[in-house]
Amino acid sequence: MDLSPATPLHLLIVDDDPQIRSMLAEYLATFGIEADGAEGGAAMRAALAVRDYDLLVLDLSLPGENGLALCREIRERGDLPVIMLTARTELADRVVGLEVGADDYVTKPFEMRELVARIHTVLRRSRGGGVKRPPAVGGHELRFGHWRLNATLRQLVDGEDTVVPLSNAEFRLLLAFIEHPNRVLDRELLINQARGRDLDVFDRSIDLLVSRLRQKLRDDPRDPALIRTVRGEGYVFTGTVEG
Description:
CATH topology of the largest domain: Rossmann fold
Structural class: alpha/beta
Mean pLDDT: 81
Largest sheet: 5 strands, parallel
CATH architecture of the largest domain: 3-Layer(aba) Sandwich
Strand content: 15-25%
Number of domains: 2
Strand order of the largest sheet: 2-1-3-4-5
Order of helices and strands: EHEHEHEHEHEEEEHEHHEEE
CATH superfamily of the largest domain: Response regulator
Number of helices: 8
């Protein structure tokens, strides 16, 4: 399988270990991906000030300013995709990382090729979210806020008539939410609702799927207006649904 990009990609690797930065940069170069390195927050900011990057690979366990704080800062500044590198023992921090805006995470130790595949998956998803094209006509629409979900055509449309692509699992999850507004839905129910013929939901937690859906809906994870977390129970959709 050829994972080389059609156009050059430019990544920034933020990790305090120079060997890891060098090793990742050398390996990514074999796939036509150019990568710069930064050892921490200050170097990351300096790099971002002089160059536009396609994606940020961010280590969670940085000395000083940790990866969670830097991810939150990146998300406040814009929509640069972020993949976090985490240790297997940091499950709680990984969930928090997704809540503050990380697009995906890779646990250490990891296969280099897995990271390349995750990079391309995140970029396809993030770049697809900004495509401007007119929505298709027809079908049953459900409205909430300035959003419209065409349940027949499986199409999410924002207030400017821009179609926001959804994966099959994201569509099924959103439909489950808007069909049960103001009701707490536990994770098991949501997993069953999101599960389909594809394996999208099997290799990612339901929390990651909710985080991805929040990003598509531009719902601030720190103060969500549409999908709220009910600690210890699940999630509740608080939007007003019409249609």
